[in-house]
Amino acid sequence: MSSSTTVMSSSTSGFNGRAFFEKLWRASGIQCVGLIILAYVIYGSQPHVGASTDALVAFYSGERTRILIAAVVSGLATLYIIWFAAAIRTTLADAGQDGWGAAATASSAAVGAMFFLFIALQAALAHSIADLGHSALASGLNDFAWAGVVLTSFPRAMLIMASTFGLWRAGLISNALFGLGVTALLLVLLGGATWQSDGLWAPDGVYSRLISPLIGLVWLLVVSGVLLTRTPATRAAW
To answer: What is the DSSP code string of 179-203?
Structure first.
């Protein structure tokens, strides 16, 4: 067997082969969803906007260990969503839809940056800030975190849009699935308008806190399923 044949065999089979890594990263959306749910369960219920000092201290100091563990899990989830966008980017490039793939890369970078900022705020509050006695600072950062949750709606909607339109233009999803993707896009984008003082439409309300994120997670699972049904690319993208 020649050296070139040996290299080709090692690049297409086993744990160091292209097919293995391509399948791994195409499934990263599913892994991301699992990690996000795990982090949410560990993290618990964050104090609402305008919460009292006692409530802030009780949560960020009393639940310090849980919050810091959740920060680690959330950080891993953020990495997986970026890898997932890379899988979308490669799939769309193979299908001649590189523009939508670039949009997925850009939006995932924005999502990742905002998520890391949110994680850093929570970790800093739990690690030391809540214990320093600066109630105004702790309250302000807690409210800032809720505002960040609302603003993540825009890059999350862009990621849904890039994957939906790109896969549809590439002929990889049906018109019905495209319609569901557009619906998910609009519903997540609507989360960027949740600025009421309280209730369902508040930054810490049910829509921004649960409904909009759940829609995004379901779409991650759907797109992961679409990517996993595709035959691995022949070029050395991985």
So the answer is: HHHHHHHHHHHHGGG---SSSTTST
